[in-house]
Amino acid sequence: MAKIELQDLQFAYPGKSFNLAVKQQVFADPMTAIVGQNGAGKSTIFKLLTGLLQPDTGIIKVDGHDLADFKPVDRLKTIGITFQNPDDQLFNATVKREVEWSLSQVNDDRDANSQQADKVLANVGLAEKAAENPYDLSLSERKLLTIATVLAIDPEIYLFDEPMISLDSPSKLMLTQIFHELVADGHQVITITHDMDWVAAEFGAVCVMEHGRIQFTGTPRALFGDRGLVERVGLLPPKVMELTSMLGDSRVYLSPEDYYKQNLGK
Amino acid sequence: NAIDPISKLLLILDMALLSFASTNLLLEAGLITGGLLLLLFSKVSSTTVKALGFSLFLIFTMLVIQGLFYSKNQTVWFSIIGINFYKEGLIYATTLGSRVLVIILASGFFMVTTSISENAKYLEQSGLSYKTVYVLMSVCYILPEIMGNMRKIQQAQRVRGVNPQKTVIQKLKSVLPVLIPLVIKTLDQSMTRSISLQLRGFDNPNRKALKSTNRYRLVSGLHIGLTFAAIILIGWKLWTKISGLL
Amino acid sequence: MDRKSVGGKVSSDIFKVVLTAMFIAVTVAISRFFIIPIPMTHGNINLCDAGIFISALLLGPRVGGVVGGASGFLLDLISGYGQYMWFSLIVHGAEGLIVGLIAGKHADRKWTKLIAVSVGIVIMVIGYFVADSVLYNLYAGYVGIGTNLIQGAVGALIAYLVTPRLRKRI
Amino acid sequence: MDEDKRITLDNLSVRYRGAEDAQLKNVSATASIGQIVGIIGNSHTGKSTLCRVLAGVIPNIISAEITGSCEVLGHSPVHEWPNFNSLTGVVLQNPAGQLSGLADTVADEMAFDLINQGISEDVINKRVANVAAQMGLTDQLVQTPESLSGGQMQRLAIATAIVTQPTILIMDDPTSEMDPLGRQQFFHWLANVQSTTVFIVSSEIDDLSEIADRIWVMDDGQLVEQGTPQAVFNYLDADRQIPKPTAYQLAAGMNWHLSNGALPVTPSELKEAYDGKN
Q1: Is the model's pLDDT at B201 over the cut of 60?
Q2: What's the mean pLDDT when you consider all of chain D?
Q3: Who is most buried in B143, B193, B209, D148, counting CB within 10 A?
Q4: D110 shares its domain with D186
Q5: What kind and span of H or E run contains A114?
Q6: How far apart are CA A60 and CA A214, in angstroms?
Q7: Which of A130, A107, A134 is nearest to A119 (CA)?
Q8: C20 CA to chain B: closest CA distance, Å?
Q9: Is residue D207 domain-shared with residue D264, that is, in the same domain?
């Protein structure tokens, strides 16, 4: 698994009071969620990682190499990102061509690209729609398509900005499944999300941001065990914990299944 | 704030015409000072400063180009590292630059002293249909929104490998990936917005135009006077042109 | 929103009003992002003609004219080419109006489109020749013909590529 | 019950012009005045279309073939538009698209509907202040609408819908861009709304079960279940691929039943079932 390291990272938007400062951060877990309130700096980190923004000071290293030295093509092959709104990037005439276009940015072999596109579309359940216009798909399907354009390139590291927003529940299950497959294949997945139930149930690590600083990195169990911290940074615990604490049980539960495991048969 | 928007526009027109009618540098200087004073007495915003900076840069390139290559160049005024700058070209460029400055200063004055909603209210009160006012004025609000959409789209495409930054070819190649999502998104938003405007009573016959909070003075007098001045200036310019030809 | 099911079914005065305003903004936005200054004429090459042609071909002469005039005016105003703005109002306005008129109801046909857009380019080039000559001198006017032709052609090409994909969505 | 106090859909079908399939197929449902109706279902199942019919957008603004009948509190959104329009507040999916596009400030934006109705300025100012307080936008009143975050924009869209004091409120996924705290506040606000009939599409199953009086489940254009949250989630087929409330999941795994034999769907029901068990 590729390893991302941030060192003494500083960034400020010109003319705004917001500034990001990260002293030392390693994304070591294969599945990390970045959480925090709006304006905490989550998207700014993603933009720095993808080179949309340049840090004022400090460096970002991937597997020990400075990200600033990457050629554009290598960067595409190393870090792939999908944004929250699928409509910001779809412009080709058919679903398949949309995926092929992405592939053509890193690879000139048309036949290979076409095959790869078919494979990926089948993977996200869009094989039947390959010949349709992207804008004729439902919002949920369009979102899956933008994810497919990144899956096709198969970068080492995947960044997802709010992937669950506007997905319906079957698509959410499918995406979670895809995440686990990626991790099993040795990829790293880093996700920005507001969905604490999902974070608690599926992720190995959580990174909490507030006012441009990283306030916490650790397992979901450690995070939600620290109620003071959760409240201070404006998060909510997973719903199952709201319910169990109402029942007078103050232990940490990450999902209903987690609750059965700890309480059944006692 | 006692001047109504139309009078201000006419004032801009007059100043522009005056500066075009004359080739007298002193008069131009006077007009520039006038424009500057108007601007300073109202409120200076960062956008006007930026616009001014850009036009000053433009004028500078004008000075260089005309100073070097103006067709009537004869007298060398000064030279820098062996390159000669000619007097005729520089004077000509100064005249042109002053005209540009006058227009920009006057327009800047208009923009900083008149809020968009003030314009909208004024136009609606002076009898324009609300739909026309909407088209003319909502653009000012929609524009930042569209620019924002555009930036987001550009970023989304840049991380997919579109790079509009270097050559002209790259720039052109990046047009479609940005333009198509932008236009489709705009169509989409237009549809939502038109549904929502209808739901929110846009064409409700009970609509009452809001009373403008500003009281304008001497509206008709100013209009007539300024229009008259504009006509005289145009006439004078035409007359000098024609008599020049004769 | 669910486009497939709704696309093309909203029709009302208000929709046209909103579309006009939106297209002015889009035209200004794309022109702002793809702008190449031309020092010799103290002007620039931009994409506003693409936006004007698209509006005129898709939405007709009235919208085309308003989009042309307003976006030309606004663009010059905010990009620091204030000396051009009144000329742009008239030149681009006429351009959009005429393209829309010629294209009329047959804006799908290749030749109608081509003729309409060519006439539009000619109007634009002549208009700016006059503008450059008045603002500066005849020499600037002649230089402008070249750059404006390029600008018009690029705009026409983009409009040609984009309009078929959008037509069924309005 | 008095006929005027009911919402009745009878065999309602809707097909957009030029589309092959109907978006809504023979939908029949009832609800009563003052109730909150939660509409759930997966993508492309007709939820938004149903909202559009209830708001009268179909067929008055978007044309479509419509059969069957829709009566809301004795009014028909199909036949009595624009009279019906004055009774409703509507929040559509895309919040930015719902702004008037002609407002300097958030306060102006909220006042837009009221100005269109020709209401006097004093009343407008009072109502705007009141609604801003409800939606937590008081501090933002003097900002420009574009400067708001996605979640604030959604709250502004809701504010513009309720500022006219509608008797019927129709909201299509109003919390999609809100952060967890914002969403919690919104549902808390909604639970306390008085004397308004609310139709809300949302995928927040837990929050909906807690506040809704009725749940309508859509699948492939059909209304496949309707009833109280408890009844709906207890009988909902797992094939529908709709998640159950967390309280239900917890109770199902632990075998905590209510005294009527059903599984709980809300926190208070869960507590009841838990107390009965222990």
Answers
A1: yes
A2: 88
A3: B193
A4: yes
A5: helix A110-123
A6: 15
A7: A130
A8: 7
A9: no
SS (H, E, C) A50-81: CCCCCCCEEEEEECCEEHHHCCHHHHHHHEEE
Which residues form the domain of D262? 244-278
- Put simply, the chain B residues between 217 and 246 with a CB less than 8 A from any chain D CB are none
Residues D127 and D265 in one domain: no
What pLDDT is recorded for position B172? 72
Structural domains of chain C, with CATH? 3-168 (1.10.1760.20)
Kindly list the residues from chain D whose CB atom is less than 8 angstroms away from the CB atom of residue B146.
none
Residue D111 and residue D34 share a domain: yes
Can you list the pairs that C142-146 forms with residues at least 24 positions away whose Cβ atoms lie under 8 Å? C143/C38, C143/C40, C143/C41, C144/C41, C144/C43
Domain residue limits, chain A: 4-235, 238-265
B146 touches chain D (CB under 8 A): no
Inter-chain CB proximity B193 and D92 less than 8 Å: no
Task: Name the pTM for this structure.
Answer: 0.84
Closest alpha carbon to B23 in B243, B241, B246 = B241
Fold (CATH) for A4-235: Rossmann fold (3.40.50)
Give yes or no: residues D143 and D261 share one domain.
Answer: no
Token pair belonging to A210: 């507030």
D189: tokens are 């606000």
**Closest-CA residue to B58 (of B105, B112, B98):** B98
Radius of gyration (C-alpha) of chain B in whole angstroms:
24
Please report all neighbours of D, defined by 3+ CB atom pairs within 8 A: A, B, C
State whether D93 and D210 are in the same domain: yes
Strands, E assignment, A28-150: 31-35, 57-62, 65-66, 79-82
Residue type, D140: Q
Best mutation target, A89, A102, A105, A162, to test chain B (most B CBs within 10 A): A89
Encode pLDDT of D39-87 as tens digits.
Answer: 999 888 889 899 989 988 888 888 888 888 888 888 888 888 778 888 8
What lies within 8 Å, CB to CB, of D92 at 6+ separation is B192, B195, B196, D98, D157, D172
Q: Which residues contact A254 (CB under 8 A, 6 or more apart)?
A: A200, A201, A220, A221, A224, A238, A240
Q: Is D156 on the interface with B (CB under 8 A)?
A: no
What residue spans of B22-129 are helical by DSSP H? 25-41, 46-69, 87-113, 116-125
**Averaged pLDDT for residues C116-129:** 88
Please determine, for residue B178, whether its predicted confidence score (pLDDT) is greater than 80. Answer: yes
| Residue-level pLDDT at B244 | 65
Q: Is the predicted pLDDT of residue A89 greater than 80, yes or no?
A: yes
Euclidean distance between CA atoms D61 and D90, whole angstroms: 14
Q: How many domains does chain D have?
A: 2
Total number of residues shown for chain A: 266
What is the distance of C-alpha B131 from the center of its chain? Answer: 23
Rounded CA-CA distance A218/A214 in Å is: 11
Distance in Å, alpha carbon of C11 to nearest chain D alpha carbon: 7
How near does any CA of chain C get to the CA of A91, in Å?
10
What is the token pair recorded at D208?
């909906």
CB of B48 within 8 A of CB of B112?
A: yes
Both D160 and D191 in a single domain? yes
Per-residue pLDDT band at C7 (split at 50, 70, 90): very low
- Any alpha helices (H) in D29-120, and if so which ranges? 47-55, 57-60, 106-116
Q: Are both D226 and D267 inside the same structural domain?
A: no
Contacts of C123 (CB under 8 A, 6+ apart): C91, C94, C95, C98
Residue-wise pLDDT for A113-163, tens only, equals: 999 999 999 999 999 999 988 888 888 899 999 999 999 999 999 999 999
Pick from B135, C6, B134, B192: nearest CA to D96: B192
Partners of A22 in the β-ladder: A9
D228: domain CATH number? 3.40.50.300
